[in-house]
Write a structure and sequence with these properties.
Layout (H helix, E strand, L loop, with lengths): L12 H89 L3 H28 L7 E3 L1 H11 L1 H6 L2 E7 L6 E3 L1 H18 L4 E10 L2 E8 L29 H11 L3 E6 L5 E8 L4
Parallel strand pairs: 2-4
Antiparallel strand pairs: 1-3, 4-5, 5-7, 6-7
Helix pairs in contact: 1-2, 3-5, 5-6
Length: about 290
Amino acid sequence: MLGISSKEHDPNEEDIRRLKIFGVQAGLAVKKAKMYEELEDYSHHLEKRVEQKTRELEKTQGKLIESEKFAALGRLAAGVAHEINNPLGNISLSAELLLKKEGDPYKIRKLENILESVGITSRIVKNLLAYSRRSELSFELADVNGLVEKALELSENTLKVAGITLILRLSSELPAIKVDSKKLQQVLLNIITNAVQAMPDGGELYVSTYAEDGFVILELDDTGPGIPLEIRDKIFDPFFTTKDLSTSAGLGLSVSQGILDEHDGSIEIRDSDIKGTRVLIKLPGGRG
């Protein structure tokens, strides 16, 4: 009977030495792999931090440039207002004096047109001054739904006279956030006014609020004709308007965008799911 010796399976000193070397090498390989992984994670984290800081610097630079532009605009507006208002006052006074003495209907109509044009020009100058004098914001913890309801209450008669039906879809789960309540109401009133003017024959105005991805969202949908794609990139430009200058100076959306920028929020114009235009406002929910 053949016997199998177990000695050939017993590790000798050389085997043990090799095993130790292998163990050390394996340990070093694992440690090296872990170091590479940590280095890659650190590199990725550093890259994200650099991107974040770059965005913050760009935003700060943008605000500084914007502030300098508004300071320059304010000086220009003040000078323009002075240079224009004086002759406007003389034209208005002369037209009013002539109107009191004039009996010819044709000349009366022409003088009334002059006074109306003076009024339009005066309002444009006044709006330019208001636009260039942006005041500091006063943040306070506020219920966005309450601000929406207040703006709609102030617009109640306007909506009623225009024959516009209001449909509210306000979320009961919105967080309270810090905003400048008066400025945000100004934004809402500007948008409601635009919606009313877009529906001269009446229609429906849907107002919705909800929370999404850390933002408080406000949506206002009207059933008007909508805004053509070719002018959407211009509607936030100061003094751009598709309306009669006697009813609009073209500053509402531009002012609204500026206010929302100061809230670290945004405003977008989209096609509405129901028919007309959707105005979408996003406010950061982390200000609370």
